[in-house]
Amino acid sequence: MCELLGINSQHRFDTTPLLADFFKRGGQTADHADGWGLASFDRFDDLRITKHESAAAACPHARTVLQQRQLSDRLVAHIRKATFGDRLTENTQPFRRSLWGRDWVFAHNGDLYDFYPASQSQYTVLGQTDSERAFCLLFSTLLQKFDLFHPRLRTLLHFLKQQSDDIAHHGTFNYLLGNNQLLIAYASTELYWTHIAQPHQAISLVDSRYVIPSLSGHHLNSTIIVATRPLTSSEPWYPMGKGEIRLFSRGQPLIDISCARQHSQKWDTAEILV
Prior knowledge:
Elements: E1 3-14, H1 16-23, E2 36-41, E3 47-52, H2 60-67, E4 71-79, E5 95-99, E6 102-109, H3 130-146, H4 153-168, E7 174-178, E8 182-187, E9 192-197, E10 203-204, E11 211-212, E12 222-227, E13 238-239, E14 244-249, E15 252-257
Antiparallel strand pairs: 1-4, 1-12, 2-3, 2-4, 5-6, 6-7, 7-8, 8-14, 9-12, 9-13, 10-11, 14-15
Helix pairs in contact: 3-4
């Protein structure tokens, strides 16, 4: 299967060390060697996606991306181990679609078996993967349910959880969904998150064993990191339960819903985000 990385921070910072550590899992410290992708929003909220069908750990295109110093506060990255679909760029994630006047990106870890939903005229599947089929189905149902009006965040999260639980019956369905403000994480098997806030100590990366010093140029302010497996060994990472969905924004956890508890965090009144 694949691996996911999502970052949502209060302010832009140099994400390059985290990305470099994550990309090592693309063929060096793990065998996710069938492609990689990076989606990030710039300071003007414009979305940029770069992806390639090569192994991230050895790809010259990935090396160029890292050399450009990735300053960002909102990103989703993916490294692929192909199961459904050929090793082609169009099958590489994250995928991009528009809804409610915003660009969204989606990345999935897992396999969905016997999953061939009816084609939707609003969101067309361009590649061969189960992941893109799931993304298009989710957005088609969102558009059918809410039309052109963005629902309140709690309503959106409850509806996404219901739809995601249904899709998860076909196999493994861990995903990240983000736009220029929100990062949404859903877990059917394995997904972890951590919250790094000021003041923070030096951060130890797992795969590269590199240490990000506690210097002003590396301050993470208030930052959420979500990953398939923990990227650092110096912070507590919290496992998401089966069927749990979480929403983050501006480097803070806003809402979480699980099978065990229908619970909303105290920050969920910030509906001005929509």
